[in-house]
Amino acid sequence: MPGVTLEGRVLDGGGRPCLISHPHPLAGGTMDHGVVVALWRAAAARGMRALRYNFRGVGESTGELTSKSPLATADLNGAVDFLGGGPLLAIGYSYGARTTLHAIHAGEAIERAALVGIPTRLPSNRAAMANLLLGRRIRSEEYNPTPDLDLLADSPRPVRVFAGDHDPLVVVDELAERAIEPVILPGVNHFFSRHLGNQPPEQDDLDSLAQLVFDWLLAAP
Fold first, then answer.
1. Quick one: CATH architecture of 8-217?
2. For position 221, what pLDDT does the model report?
3. Handedness of CA 26, 7, 110, 40 (dihedral sign)
4. pLDDT tens across 91-125, in order?
5. DSSP labels, the chain
6. Under 8 Å CB-to-CB from 10, ≥6 apart: which residues?
7. Closest Cα to residue 115, out of 47, 39, 176?
8. pLDDT value at position 86?
9. Distances in whole angstroms, Cα of residue 8 to Cα of each of 30, 55, 93, 180
């Protein structure tokens, strides 16, 4: 990719390529996030050539990503090129899920995509951020919608939403209004944790998420 070099890690299970994209860098997201690493390892264990990578400005990746930057679809495109140009399977988590969905609509060679914790709305005040991080329910919380509900309903490629039932950024009723049926994991939040705050998930919950994601991704011939 001109002017930008991305850092990444490959686990090669010998089979079809699978790309895993991480959460928002400005919220601490990197390719070393526990959910990303768990899905990366699970992909390789299922015989896939799995790549996780850092968006620009993260870790050893060059370039810069700011609050005013567009979604990093160019970085995702570069990762697809590294894996041979597709078609491939893709997994995105949070910001990585949004980037994956937008790349699909832009024509990227993604065959199927698991969109893990894709935010269909984002916090717009401190109360909403507290709800996300601490699990509080605050009447004054406010959110801004993303355009992703409509994109999900009109995806040119098969996509599936995976989310925790305590995730305030994924509103199941809004998905249902557009005939989108997510896979909901009970008892976990946006971070797939059962604890308050951004604390590490239990291994059993990571295993459950991986099982559901790959049962769906690999169901097609």
1. 3-Layer(aba) Sandwich (3.40)
2. 61
3. negative
4. 999 999 999 999 999 999 999 999 999 999 999 99
5. -TT----EEEEE-SSSEEEEE-S-GGGT--TT-HHHHHHHHHHHHTT-EEEEEPPTTSTT--S---TTSPP-HHHHHHHHHHTTS--EEEEEETHHHHHHHHHHHTT--EEEEEEET--SEEE-SHHHHHHHHH----TT--EEE-THHHHHHT-SS-EEEEEETT-TT--HHHHHHTT---EEETT--TTS-SSSSSPPPPHHHHHHHHHHHHHHHTT--
6. 49, 50, 51
7. 39
8. 81
9. 10, 9, 16, 32
Q: Is 205 exposed, middle or buried (0-12, 13-18, 19+ CB in 10 A)?
A: buried
Per-residue confidence (pLDDT) for residue 137, from 0 to 100: 74
Taking CA atoms, 200 is separated from 65, 161, 193, 206, 208, in Å, by 25, 21, 6, 10, 15
Q: Where are the domains of the chain?
A: 8-217
- Going by pLDDT thresholds of 50, 70 and 90, the confidence category of residue 1 is low
3-state secondary structure 100-143: HHHHHHCCCCEEEEEEECCCCEEECCHHHHHHHHHCCCCCCCCE
Q: Read off the pLDDT of residues 47-98 as tens digits, 9 standing for 90 and up.
A: 999 999 999 999 999 999 888 888 899 999 999 999 999 899 999 999 999 9
